[in-house]
What does this fold into?
Amino acid sequence: MRTRRAALGTIAGAVSLALTLSACGETSESSSGSTDGTIGIAMPTRASERWLTDGKSVVKDLENKGYKTKLVYGDDDPKAQVAQVADLVEQGVDALIIAAIDNKSLNGVLKKAADADIPVISYDRLILGSANVDYYVSFDNEQVGRQQARFIIEKLGLEDGKGPFNIELFAGSPDDNNTRYFYDGSMHLLQPYLDSKQLVVRSGETSLDKVTTLRWDGATAQKRMSRILSESYNGKTVDAILSPYDGISLGVLAAVKEYGYGPDGKDLPIVTGQDAELASVKSIIAGEQSQTVYKDLRELATVAANMADDLLKGRTPRINNRRGYKNGVKDVPAYLLQPASVDKSNYSYVLAGYYTPEQLK
It folds into this structure.
């Protein structure tokens, strides 16, 4: 294998690799008898099914290409993640793939990675404020938000003039750059109906800083939804809830069920989601959660693995978005995949091959 410095010298800007790590996360090291180098993979948490899938998929794809891997999970602790990434840099990994917990906490350690000629790929969550992020791989995040909003618009019949309806808004973690893209995508379609009063947010909480959910935590979302119902829905019904992620979706559903929504009470509101996690897909099949956005994590892992392989072998990685993702210091070249909306009418074929029929029982 060519040296890191020689390989990176052929690609402008490929000098650092971003990695999401955690204090209590254990390092999983895999080897397939490879000679092409070692790649560090930092994922944000083991508390979410999707990040476990991401980690396993990236490891599998890299090992199939002949690399050794070091996989760590940050368990939602930004300081621990920084320490983990620093440890990977000290170990001399050849590249880093990082899904950041806090998108602004890694700047110092990424400078160390750049000084060591270790390229950085920001995985799904764009790392902000650092020149030492070489590439970004993710899904079209504004499209995720638009698919969630479009589902609400169609199910409520807003384009046909129906309404008014009550809606509450939830967003992701304030330290995740994707949160703004999801929310902006949704509000691009929902705002006209809010302006016309076809949609009413009875809580009055509409600005992004009022609706975020730290660490995407379902229990935090449940607590906020319970407060909103108690304060703003005495004698009123919530008709829809914009939720950006399945864990949040299940949290708000738990709250509304505690307040008498469900088979023996008021109709459950429309509740969107994201990631097509198994628990939420089962909830959709059962008629509770209404929709989720499916992102094939296997494809995302493949793109990240191909990108790392290209960087280390002196090739220019394939991208399809050069200037759309600004991290405050630079335009980070990106490759974006397309998501798909999933509901009870189409889950069986959209998710075919992702879950087995036995898993969905």
